[in-house]
Amino acid sequence: MFQMLTAPTEFLSDGKGWLTAARCVRMELGEPDASGRRRPTPIKGSEYRFAVCPWHYGYRHHANPIVQSTTPGLGTDKRGYI
Predict the structure, then answer these.
(1) What are the pLDDT digits (tens) for 14-69?
(2) What is the pLDDT of residue 61?
(3) In whole angstroms, what is the distance from residue 15 CA to residue 28 CA?
(4) How far apart are CA 36 and CA 32, in angstroms?
(5) Burial category of 19 from C-beta neighbours within 10 Å (exposed 0-12, middle 13-18, buried 19 and up)
(6) Is 18:66 a contact under the CB 8 Å cutoff?
(7) Rounded CA gap, 44 and 10, in Å?
(8) Is the distance from CB of 68 to CB of 78 less than 8 angstroms?
(9) CB 53 within 8 A of CB 79
(10) Backbone φ, ψ for residue 4 (5° rounding)
(11) CA distance 4 to 10
(12) pTM assigned to the model
């Protein structure tokens, strides 16, 4: 599921290393700046939380360590990528 003009603000775990939810805020495009670009700005009161699957952990720019630790024999490079 894709949510346009939405930004994650926090990822929540169960305290055992498993991702369980994400907190997000909806955004709107502001007025154009000097370059003509309309930058996204948070909409007050639009924060929400939704449950996610553990594989979403890789959303940022790092490999998901859970996949590596729960899949015996999985070949990965030094950074943990498959």
Answers:
(1) 888 788 888 999 999 999 999 999 999 999 999 999 888 765 444 556 666 766 67
(2) 61
(3) 33
(4) 5
(5) buried
(6) yes
(7) 16
(8) no
(9) no
(10) -75, 150
(11) 17
(12) 0.58
- Could you say which DSSP state residue 65 is in? H
Interior angle at CA 44, CA 35 and CA 31, nearest 5: 20
Domain boundaries along the sequence of the chain: 6-70
| Residue 7 CB partners (closer than 8 Å, separation 6+) | 24, 25, 27, 40, 42
At residue 48, the pLDDT reads 96
Q: Which residue blocks in 3-79 are alpha helix, DSSP H?
A: 65-70
35 residue type, one letter: S
